[in-house]
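Re-run requested by the PI after the first attempt was lost when the workstation crashed. Everything re-entered from the original request form. Ligand of interest: magnesium ion.
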Amino acid sequence: MQAIFDLYKWDIKSCKALHQGLINQTFDIVTKDNSEFILQTINHQIFKQPSNIDYNIRLISQFILQHHPSYIFTHLVPNVHGDTITTLNNRYYRAFKKLPGHALNVLENTTQAEEAAKAFGNFTSLLSPLPIEQLKISLPQFHDLTLRYHQFEEALQKGDSNRITACKDAIAYLQDQKKIVTQYQLFTQSKEVKKRVTHHDTKISNVLFDTTDKAICVIDLDTVMPGYFISDVGDMCRTYLCKVSEEEKDLNLVHIEKSRWEAIQIGYLSAMQPHLSYFELDHFKFAGEFMIYMQALRFLADHLNRDIYYGAKYDGQNYVRAINQIELLKRYQEQI
Ligand code: GN1
Ligand code: MG
């Protein structure tokens, strides 16, 4: 790591790995003059063109500095060469100045749901004058449910046969819910639907809060690219409505907190209502079904593919995540 610290001219006091996110590695850096940074590697097995992420964040950063200079944003910190992305030993790094605030793994109350939803809604609303064609695609077809279903079917063909047999109930349930793919296709084909600057990873740990539960800013901008509002609202429903996360094994704890559903609507629409068409507004509830279902498909497909994408800290972790999401989908369809 010393070589990378040198490239940022950091005289290091401490460097702590943060166990955040499933894809990239994140470090909390404090230098001897007490400056604080976040250093992150970009997983380029997944993000094949890390320069696209860098390009998008710089584009957004410039837009914000020009039009909304007081908006709190994770502006990139350049290295000694003036580059905001650093390649070293075939690894990609970038750094941000650490912002005050803390991230949550699970929500503690309804205010946090409203605040987070408002923060993501504001982000898209604020960037609405930025022509989306200027953004690069950091992960092609990332939230394309048709593709995700196809990948799930491929896993049923080529995946681990023992796992396929053991997961037959979960597989049958997801196949039975295929109508969600059709609904997604109808939604995306509609002329009433627009692509906008979309975060694509609106889980609660991607918002920084202050001590009074006010959202300070949104973080983790790797997947910011043109997309549909159902991606952002959907991931809010997936991760804010329940008191336990996708890692929870005890399915009895997977409940929907109805007050948080109201909070997501109030928060997100306070910024986004003027931007959305009636047709889009009518798909607010569908957003949750779409994202919970897609995540269940992705976790189960990965389990069948022997965890090549998400990895697993214990045998069956992606299966646990998948059945957790299936349970959440059932509760969502019953209660929302
Ligand atoms: C991944 O790495 P992280 O935790 O920010 C994934 C998301 C999933 C999430 C599930 C690029 O996000 O789509 O919703 O795991 N990101 C990518 O926890 O695949
Ligand atoms: Mg992420």
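Saved to the shared folder this time. The chain has twelve helices and ten strands.
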